[in-house]
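hey so u asked for the seq, here:
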Amino acid sequence: MLKQRNILFTIIGLLVFLSVGSVTAAEFITGEETWTLTPSQTVDDDLYIEAGEIIIEGTVNGDIVAIGEYLRIQGEVNGDILFLGGGLRLDGTVNGDIRAAALSVDIRGTVSDDLTVAGFGIVGLDDPVPIGNNRALIVGTRINEGMVGDDVYALSGLIHMNNGTIGGDVMGQVAGLDMTNSQIEGSVDLSVLQIAVDDLSRVLGTDGFRYRSAIPAEVSTLTEKIEYVAIEQPPTDWIAVLRTIVGRVAGLAIVGWVILRFRPNLLVEPVAAINARSIWATWLGLTIVGSAFFAAFGLAILVSFFWGGLAAITFAGSILFGMGTMWILSPLVTGFWLGQRFSIQPFQGLLFGCIFIVIMQMIPLFGFGISLFSFVIAVGGMALAPRIEDLPSQV
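ran it, structure tokens below
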């Protein structure tokens, strides 16, 4: 298991190396439950860390690439941070960029340059999500009395600002934007479902506040220049929707029946792995999905040097084709996982679960999040299954 982790982590490190430039030195830490850099310690290299909980209290004179349940920065990082995991909290200073794919990003310190976040979040969902070490995370991106020196790029999830400052622009697509006594010194350009601001918050950029939403929001106190772009939902063709649902469910049911009839372990083992370690399966799935896209293009560049452009395109295409196929068929794993709660008969449970997921996927905007979650956890379950002993071997 440790060897597999090291291989995976080395691949990720290589991809980051290719994408961000040369690395003169590095330290690799893997397999730790908790890893701490104490206040008296200084690291003059780049850090590549895979651990359950990562605490940085000292100084890092380089970049940090981290995978784990929780990353907390209380010291100083004189470089960039790339994080994939459950939650990131910054109480100290990062003199560079932060790029994070996580359930929770909490900025209470200072980010000198850009903040790029990708995550999940639904407006109105404020219940903490439990992770390891009796810790719970509030889903979304929060700037709590913290500061981002430059731009913020956000995909999905929520952005909450409370006495926070952003020195540049805010761009992306989010479920919600909430500002309390906060300031954005640049401009805003967002696709957003819901906006809540108070009278003390301001947007100071010359381009003002531009947003796309189905419903206009009261944001007149933010800036004098406001541009609202209405997202108009086309009339729903219910016959087409029903036809799509029936077609998808029928296709999944046929493939699922064949698998349960001839190779049931293809579904049983990933589902058992998800039941055993659902949080870890989600993070592992995010790691694989994220690194696969880098691999498709980064490694294709290397292939092109030896075998030419056609081989590189074929190589990248095969990876993307495999990921696309898994995207389409992932409801088989998640449907089987959910279906256990509806029926003890395997095929009936699979069918009920697939119907539920397919219907959820048809909901505008929300459906993409369901598809992404299904894809990520299915990939994570399949990758995690060989690592867990005593999984059931048959239905």
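The chain has two domains: 2-230, 238-387. The chain has seven helices and 24 strands.
lmk if thats what u needed
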